[in-house]
């Protein structure tokens, strides 16, 4: 029997998905007040020990460059140096940061390495094989940004092939581009060319997030993906349209608004990074952060409800604000609209358009 259990405490949230002998744990840990990174990272380790799970992936988001000195605390708290980690930086203004961990119990987790670093994991749940790549970096940070982007896609392809998978199995991607506003067009050119080469547009275009963010290697971008290979005929991956927005490829961005993974006993929904964009692909409510939050949240809620889900089914979310000073509007919107608490990490990152002030991505799951 499939069940979903949620445990919420100050500064942490654990959602456990139990299925036969396999359990997945979706863990979100955020600072309590002015808590320093060292303390935050130690709490991450404490929470992971509670669930006794093997790490699939770790994302540390919103960290400042100076916090690199605490990386050893995080890896030690997580059990060692061989941690599949995506480390995304800005300035940690107002302590906007957090750590997300995906862990598994009851199934072996196979580590994936590239160029001497662990960059992902493989596991199976009896229905499908799951591949999570995280913290992928270009092999040469001195190359042009376009070349570095191609390097990242080439790594994805090699790692997937090594796992017996292909890019056609990818349902979700993430890209954190340093100084994104100065070269997002160039990034899209490389991505679109790669998708044509891999015939992605002939099948499923992955959901995606593309926002600003630095990395500890000072490379042009850091990225990751989730891919799923079916092991029984009941597994399906389908694009989910947005009721309130047009498909992103119509205005030159190569991603789906959302993708759903359907298995016999549950459905998982992956909603792309979503911002205040209308049905024609135009940015709206310019200069008004509260209106942009409202518009964006209504768009995401419409996607959730189109799949018979709502905010209570969210297992992971990242809320990106261009300006840290606007972040309280996220809590204000949820309180004014009676939205129950759900796991969320709020950070300060540039969005892919200069005029966009807010973006959110969510993962959700529901038992069927």
Quick recap:
By secondary structure, this protein is α+β, with helices and mostly antiparallel strands.
What labels would you give this structure?
about 375 residues, alpha+beta, about 20% helix, about 35% strand
Topology record:
Elements: E1 3-9, E2 12-19, E3 22-29, H1 37-51, E4 54-64, H2 71-77, E5 85-90, E6 98-105, E7 110-114, E8 117-124, E9 128-136, H3 145-162, E10 170-177, H4 184-197, E11 207-212, E12 221-230, E13 236-240, E14 258-263, E15 266-275, H5 289-306, E16 314-321, H6 328-336, E17 345-348, E18 358-367
Parallel strand pairs: 4-5, 10-11, 16-17
Antiparallel strand pairs: 1-2, 2-3, 3-6, 4-6, 7-8, 8-9, 9-12, 10-12, 13-14, 14-15, 15-18, 16-18
Helix pairs in contact: 1-2, 3-4
Overview of this structure, please?
The protein is globular, with a radius of gyration of 19 Å. Helix 4 links the parallel strand 10 and strand 11. The longest helix has 18 residues, at 145-162. Helix 1 packs parallel to helix 2. The protein contains six helices and 18 strands. The chain has a six-stranded mixed beta sheet, with helices on one face. The chain has helices at 37-51, 71-77, 145-162, 184-197, 289-306, 328-336; strands at residues 3-9, 12-19, 22-29, 54-64, 85-90, 98-105, 110-114, 117-124, 128-136, 170-177, 207-212, 221-230, 236-240, 258-263, 266-275, 314-321, 345-348, 358-367. The protein has 368 residues and is of the alpha+beta class. The model has no long low-confidence stretch (mean pLDDT 96).
